[in-house]
Design brief:
Strand order of the largest sheet: 4-3-2-5-6-12-9-8-7
Helix content: 40-55%
Number of helices: 24
Distance between the termini: 32 Å
Largest sheet: 9 strands, mixed
Shape: elongated
Number of strands: 16
Structural class: alpha+beta
Length: 699
């Protein structure tokens, strides 16, 4: 006899009870699957074919007689003389013979093929007997269990339920549960419309109920209910509380760096008309090059180097960017719970009141410095830098293709005193500011190419002025007129003093005189001097040399593309904030916060994957749809989500029983679950019988 674990004996007991109640049915896989799952999770062993066969034999010892009592079994086609009354013993004898020492696995499979034939046979009901009705449903789950597992692991569901209190008459799924479902829909379908969530959730209701341990109502995900949720999320106080609770938890649990915060803004165009004068939706300077549309602005604070959003503030579309940095800074340090950060921003953050506000709160700043009123001042700094080339700090990087060190930037640093008076309390704040006059080699080369292209366009344009006037070609009777035209065209190409021309009079056939361009040339000395002045930028910071050296500051500022990628994910690539289908501005603010939360899920999941891959020294294969054999150590969340495709849960329901089957995961999908520290049975539990929480959920 085979000694079975108690939990498996319990499953077999339930199987026997079912067989006694419905002896005309086969032994359901819903009772066989927990056996192998229990062995795998409880005892840590692989379930091989012989082990499955022996377990099947132990179950068949008790079940086959019940089948035969309900209706006669049929003898094998090659054994027609077998006594039908002894068929159960006959089949058990065959299987027991197959399990002798060193038994051939093919014999085991053959015996169970006979047994499967008997299973099929008993499904043919005698004449006059009606098969009970069956209900078969298929749920296309794909990445839904993965996303729900990530969202729950990040604590989003519980945190929202803690800080968002609905009306006292609220019934059904909690706000945190609804947002978990909605977030999964947004990330899987890339669609934030409210009206699509209800049908999507209804098609996956059994999966949602199993993973979230709820009973989702048909009315829980209606667009009206989701709109109410957005109204609650649109409250700035609620957003600030959620940002602080979530971010501080993630920093603690996932050991996120908090040294650097980056601030920047973008615009979001909308198609709304007839709004109030004080509306959020206003015409203004459009970074999307749509001046014909209304817009609102988003001020985003992110954590470097992840690009993880800290806070996201919707602002009226007609407001200037310079005044947005102080509120964003205040919100960011409140969410982080610390002011000991380096705040990085573009030139619009370089206003003295903004820098002074950060100094007054004990933070450090690094920003580009390009105010309109300081053009001549910056030009003087560049002249001074060129005059002290021998003292430049040089930053070199290794060229991976050639193995050579390449000059990437030269820097001329100096210090200057700064003072700012806080208008709120009249307190003066003074500090020493470091000014970094930096010339990037790549930036200089790019600007030089632009000048060369401008010269290539200017030359034929000036040569047209060397031709004598004819019909359709203007005649310049005065030298000053032609000189002004030439100077205007050279200035438009930004080649003043570089391109030189000579003018001379030309005698026409009618005896009159017209001025033309006689010669064009480039002053090489002036050209070289112009090239030397290309590519210079100025950064200002209140950090000391002990805190950050100059190369570290330049490298920190050049991480701006990470922030731009965050904007791209939010607006176009994945979350598709545009177009906005809402009119209520509180709900628009709530939707923006919700999509920023989805962006945090994408960003943090990506960081966790890459960190785990690096720590394990592993690679992920099969994420690139163009090359399934390509391996990567830098997976993106978007491709990971798409890797979980064509996964379904099939549920067959009859009278008093239910059978489930879930698609098996491939090696890449199992590896992703392991890298994210998610339960390995996250998908397999969907095939467990409902109500058996001991086997469904792994504590």
């Amino acid at each position: 006899m085979i000694t079975l674990p108690p939990v498996i004996q319990s499953v077999i007991g339930r199987a026997l009870d079912t067989m006694r109640s419905h002896p005309q049915h086969q032994l359901l896989p819903v009772y066989r699957l927990p056996i192998s799952q229990t062995l795998r999770t409880t005892y840590g062993i692989a379930v091989s074919d012989p082990i499955r066969a022996r377990l099947g034999l132990a179950t068949a010892r008790r079940v086959l007689p019940l089948w035969h009592a309900a209706m006669p079994l049929y003898p094998p086609p090659d054994e027609p003389g077998v006594d039908p009354n002894r068929l159960p013993d006959y089949f058990l004898h065959l299987v027991e013979q197959a399990f002798q020492p060193n038994a051939d696995l093919d014999i085991i499979n053959l015996c169970f093929a006979y047994l499967r034939c008997q299973v099929r046979a008993v499904l043919w009901y005698p004449s006059g007997m009606t098969a009970p009705p069956l209900t078969i449903t298929n749920e296309q789950v794909n990445s839904l269990p993965l996303l729900l597992g990530i969202i729950i692991d990040m604590g989003i569901r519980d945190t929202i339920d803690t800080y968002v209190t609905p009306h006292g008459n609220w019934e059904g799924a909690s706000v945190g549960t609804l947002l978990s479902i909605w977030l999964s829909h947004i990330l899987q379908e890339r669609d934030h419309r409210l009206v699509t969530v209800r049908e999507w959730a209804a098609d996956r209701v059994q999966t949602i109920n199993t993973l979230l341990e709820i009973r989702l109502r048909d009315t829980d995900c209606t667009d009206d209910r989701l709109a109410t949720v957005l109204t609650m999320l649109g409250d700035p106080t609620t957003q600030a509380a959620l940002d602080a609770a979530l971010l501080q938890r993630w920093v603690r649990v996932y050991r996120l760096p908090t040294a650097t915060v980056r601030l920047d803004s973008t615009s979001v165009s909308v198609y709304h008309d007839d709004v109030e004068e004080d509306s959020l939706l206003q015409p203004g300077y459009s970074k999307e090059h749509r001046p014909d549309l209304r817009q609102f602005k988003l001020m985003l604070a992110t954590l470097d180097p992840l690009g993880l959003p800290i806070c996201c503030q919707p602002i009226a579309g007609n407001k200037g960017d310079n005044g947005l940095y102080v509120p964003a800074f205040d919100a960011a340090i409140a969410a982080l719970g610390t002011t000991a950060v380096l705040v990085v921003g573009d030139s619009k953050m370089g206003d003295l009141p903004t820098r002074g506000h950060m100094v007054a709160h004990g933070s450090r700043y690094l920003s580009a410095y390009r105010p309109i009123h300081a053009t001549s001042e910056i030009a003087g700094w560049v002249d001074d830098a060129l005059a002290h080339a021998a003292t430049w700090l040089r930053i070199e990087t290794l060229d991976r293709r050639t193995g050579e060190l390449q000059l990437s930037a030269v820097i001329h640093p100096f210090d200057r005193p700064q003072t700012w008076v806080d208008p709120a309390n009249g307190q003066a704040h003074s500090w020493t500011e470091r000014v970094l006059v930096v010339r990037s080699t790549a930036y200089q080369a790019g600007m030089r190419r632009l000048r060369e292209q401008a010269l290539a366009r200017l030359t034929p344009d000036l040569l047209q002025l060397a031709q004598p006037p004819t019909r359709g070609r203007k005649r310049y009777a005065q030298q000053a007129d032609l000189a002004q035209v030439v100077a205007t065209r050279i200035a438009a190409a930004k080649l003043d003093g570089v391109v030189q021309t000579a003018l001379e009079p030309s005698q026409l056939r009618d005896g009159s005189t017209a001025w033309v361009v006689a010669a064009i040339w480039v002053d090489l000395v002036a050209w070289q001097a112009m090239v030397e002045r290309l590519g210079w930028q100025v950064y200002v910071t209140n950090t000391s040399a002990d805190q950050y050296d100059v190369p570290a500051l330049v490298a920190a500022y050049h991480q701006q593309p990470v922030h731009e990628r965050t904007f791209s994910r939010l607006k176009t690539r994945n979350l598709h904030l545009r177009p906005v289908f809402l009119r209520d501005e509180t709900r628009i603010a709530g939707l923006v916060w919700l999509l920023c939360l989805a962006l945090r899920v994408l960003t943090l999941t990506e960081q966790r994957l890459r960190t785990a891959v690096q720590e394990q020294g592993a690679e992920l294969v099969g994420l690139n749809p163009a090359s399934r054999t390509q391996a990567t150590t830098q997976p993106t969340t978007e491709r990971v989500i798409r890797a979980f495709r064509n996964l379904t849960v099939t549920v067959v329901t009859g009278e008093g029983w239910e059978q489930r089957h879930v698609s098996s995961l491939n090696q890449t999908q199992q590896q992703i679950l392991d890298l994210l520290s998610l339960p390995p049975d996250l998908y397999a539990r969907l095939g467990m019988p409902p109500g058996n929480l001991a086997l469904q959920m792994r504590e």
